[in-house]
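pinned: reference chain
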Amino acid sequence: MTESPDTPPARRRRRGGGGRGAPGGGRPARFPGWPARPVGRLASDRPGPPRTPRSRHRRLLRAAALVLVVTVLASAGLGWAIWTRLNGNIRADSATERELEKYESERPPAGPKNAQNVLLIGSDNRGGGNGAYGEDTGTQRSDTTILLHLAANRRSATAVSIPRDLMTQVPHCRRTDGTESAPQVVQFNWAFAYGGAACAIRTVERMTSIRIDHHVIVDFTGFKNMVDAVHGVQVCLPRPIRDEEAHLSLPAGRQTLGGEAALGYVRARKSLGNGSDTQRMARQQQFLAALVKKVQSNGVLLNPMRLYPVMDAATSSLTTDAGLASLRGMYELVRSMRSIPTSRVQFLTVPRTAYRDDPNRDQLVQPDADRLFAQLRKDRPVAVAPDPARAAADDKPSGPGGRPAPGASSVPSFPGSTAERGGCE
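pinned: its structure tokens
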């Protein structure tokens, strides 16, 4: 297009594309000495450089990191909720701790480092959801008591049952109403009825000269919940059982007992054998051996998903001393036991025989009982072997104990069983 002579100079420069600072037809320079701007769209309007695989990879990494952060935070929140629930389930028995402090000078000295002695008390309290098992009279006695000794090296665990009908010296104890009971020789389970866990602990310590490091109280409901948490325990019954008092009706043969049936099974007396407490303790030991074996064989202690319902059931129904009244304390105790082989988880009853003044009561057999207590007190090994006399008649006394174990003359052996033999083997 030719320019008309009448066209103003400024318009000619714009049309021609020339002008100062814009040689070659570009747009005028923004400042003197700067290069001319290109004709057409501004630089900011131009598409950016093509996206490379590296830039896409970085976007994926950022997204993955975000998902990971969200997952970690959610898991942490869930973990904290679980921890808070389990930790809040356990009831601390501070009253027992305060009462024991009053009698510190009477108590035995602490045992070898890292060895632990735990008193397990099964309460027959009918309150707190246990009303289905009898009238709540506001009192409680120790339906079952077991002294659990954990070796310092955690290579063995020995559970010693103390008969509730064992005649023993119970010290003066403070009752719940504030009065004091007088020292007297009575059935062992009256100690718990007189003065709760503190009185039971002092009675066991006086009997054995073993310092009790921890105590755990579990009621009927708690026992049921723990059995249900592992989906039942297998037992073998030689004949059918029907016991209305124990709420129990079972056919003969191999079967898995849920919590309700398991509770009736370990409590039943009149419908099984001769109705003796000795036979009932043996049955409780066999059931606990089967329970321990199932927990270890199923990997419950190593699998958090399986361990949680067991811990939830256990912590929801336990009353413990302050040292165990936290999830950390309880878990450390359980974790320390997971490496103990079932062949070294032992169950036995204190050496006992019929009481001289009443054949329906028991008394310790000496010196066998003291020999057993001395081994545990010094954290020395104890062996167990099946008792032929008990296999023939469960109501017979446990007989002499403390014999050297076969092949190990320095290790005394007592009638009993192990978790390895638990169940239907």
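why pinned: Confidence is low (pLDDT under 50) at residues 10-22, 73-78, 126-137, 390-397. The chain has eleven helices and 18 strands.
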